[in-house]
Design a protein that fits this description.
Blueprint lengths: L18 E7 L6 H11 L8 H12 L4 H5 L2 H6 L4 H17 L2 E8 L11 H23 L4 E9 L5 H10 L5 E7 L11 H10 L4 E4 L5 H9 L5 E4 L7 E6 L4 E5 L1 H8 L3 E4 L1 H6 L15 H6 L4 E3 L4 H4 L3 H12 L3 H14 L4 H16 L2
Parallel strand pairs: 1-2, 2-3, 3-4, 5-6, 6-9, 9-10
Antiparallel strand pairs: 7-8
C-alpha cells in the first residue's frame, strides 16, 4: 500500500485528491519485485535479489547529482522490458500504481527504440505497452469503480539518430493510444535541432510535442525546444529560472526582470513539467542550492508560470505525486488551493482535445471541492 500523505495542518489526504501526471517515465516506474521476477524469467542478473534492497540500490545510484549517472540506472530497468510480456506487465502495473496515488489522467513516456534487443519491432513494442495500459485501466475500473485515462508519449533518444523514424511511429499510433512525442536522454551536447526533421514532420501532422529541456542544460536548450521542437510543454524546464533576474527584495515583494525566453514561456502559458525530487538528484537546481527549499519552483509559481508537479521516475526517486506535493507543502507552506492550481495547470496542458481537458478540469474541481 502507498504511504498516505496528509496536508500539513488540515489532515486532508493528499493521496485521495485527483491528480494529473504529465512527466512519468515507464522505465522509471517499475516495481522492484517485478524487476526481480522478470529478470529471473529471462536469465539476467540484477544488483539485488531482495525487493527492498533493490529499491534502495536504485535510490542510492540515482542520488548522484549528475543526470548522466542518474540515467545509468535505466540499464537495469530496460533490460527486463524487452519482451511483449515484460512490457505489458510493466505498463499494466504502472497504471495501477498511478491510480493508487489518485491520478485520474496520466501520460506515460517511454522510448520504444530502447526495447528491441529481443526481437520486437517498434510497432510491436508500442502495441505491447498499449495492451498493458488498457489492462491496467480495466483493473482500476473493476477494482475500485474509478476511472483513469492514460496516453502514451512516444519518445526518441536525443543522442541517437532515429528521431524521424520514431516521430512516424508516434503518428501511426496516434489513434491507438499515443498522445504525443518527446525527446529524452542526455541533454547537454544533444540539442533539439538534431531532430529537426522529426519536429518538422510532427508539426505537419499536428501531433503535440513536449521536449526535455532546462534540466542538464540551460536557456539555449530551452530556446531550441521552443524554436526547433515547437514544444507545447517543457520537460522539467527548471533552468528557465536562469533567465529571471532578481533585481531586489523587500519584506513583502520580490522584483524581477524576465529575459526573452522566460517572458515567452510565461506569456504563452507553456507548461513546465517540474519534478522536484528528481531535479535535486540530477543536480538540475545546483545553481540555487541542494535542498528542496532552494528549488526555483516557488519563484516560478509566484510569477504565474504554468507550473506542474511530476515524479519523473518514481522508482529512482522513491516518490509519488502525493509525496512530491507533501514535500512542496513542507518547503513552501502550500495549501489545498495551491495543490488545485497545480492540477488545473496540468489538466490545461494535457495532450487531450479541448472538450476532454474541460471535463478533466471539472473532475479536479469537484474532487477538491469535496476534500
Amino acid at each position: 500500500m502507498p504511504t498516505d500523505y496528509l496536508l500539513p495542518g488540515g489532515g486532508t489526504s493528499i493521496n485521495s485528491l485527483p491528480k494529473v501526471s504529465l512527466h512519468d517515465h515507464l522505465d522509471g516506474g517499475l516495481r522492484p519485485q517485478t524487476i526481480i521476477e522478470l529478470a529471473d524469467a529471462i536469465g539476467i542478473d540484477v544488483p539485488e535479489t531482495d525487493s527492498t534492497a533493490l529499491a534502495t540500490w536504485f535510490a542510492d545510484q540515482a542520488d548522484s547529482g549528475s543526470l548522466v549517472e542518474y540515467l545509468k540506472t535505466f540499464d537495469v530497468t530496460t533490460a527486463v522490458m524487452q519482451t511483449t510480456e515484460g512490457l505489458e506487465r510493466v505498463a499494466r502495473e504502472f497504471v495501477q500504481d498511478l491510480a493508487a496515488d489518485g491520478v485520474i489522467y496520466g501520460e506515460i513516456r517511454w522510448a520504444p527504440e530502447q526495447h528491441l534487443a529481443r526481437g520486437l519491432t517498434l510497432d510491436q513494442a508500442v502495441e505491447a505497452v498499449q495492451a498493458g495500459i488498457e489492462a491496467g485501466i480495466d483493473d482500476v475500473a473493476s477494482g475500485t469503480g474509478n476511472g483513469i485515462r492514460i496516453g502514451q508519449l512516444v519518445t526518441a533518444m536525443r543522442h541517437a539518430n532515429r528521431g524521424l523514424e520514431i516521430a512516424e511511429l508516434a503518428v501511426r499510433h496516434r489513434d491507438r493510444g499515443v498522445a504525443g512525442f518527446d525527446i529524452a536522454g542526455a541533454e547537454l551536447g544533444f540539442p533539439a535541432r538534431n531532430h529537426l526533421s522529426a519536429f518538422d514532420y510532427l508539426a505537419k501532422e499536428f501531433l503535440p510535442v513536449t521536449v526535455h529541456a532546462g534540466e542538464a542544460d540551460g536557456i539555449d536548450s530551452i530556446r531550441g525546444a521552443l524554436f526547433d521542437g515547437r514544444a507545447l510543454r517543457l520537460g522539467h524546464g527548471v533552468r528557465l529560472a536562469e533567465d529571471i533576474s532578481i533585481e531586489r527584495e523587500d519584506d513583502d515583494n520580490t522584483y524581477v526582470t524576465l529575459g526573452p525566453v522566460a517572458q515567452w514561456v510565461r506569456d504563452r502559458e507553456i507548461a513546465l513539467e517540474l519534478s522536484p525530487s528528481s531535479n535535486l538528484q540530477t543536480g538540475a537546481i545546483a545553481a540555487w542550492g541542494d535542498e528542496l527549499v532552494d528549488h526555483p519552483f516557488d519563484l516560478l509559481y509566484q510569477l504565474d508560470f504554468r507550473v506542474t508537479v511530476n515524479t519523473d521516475n518514481r522508482l529512482m526517486s522513491r516518490t509519488t505525486i502525493s509525496r512530491e506535493l507533501a514535500l512542496l507543502a513542507d518547503a513552501f507552506s502550500y495549501d489545498l488551493d495551491d495543490f488545485e492550481v497545480f492540477q488545473l495547470n496540468a489538466a490545461s496542458a494535457a495532450f487531450l482535445p479541448l472538450e476532454d481537458r474541460d471535463e478533466l478540469i471539472e473532475q479536479i474541481s469537484a474532487g477538491f471541492d469535496a476534500a
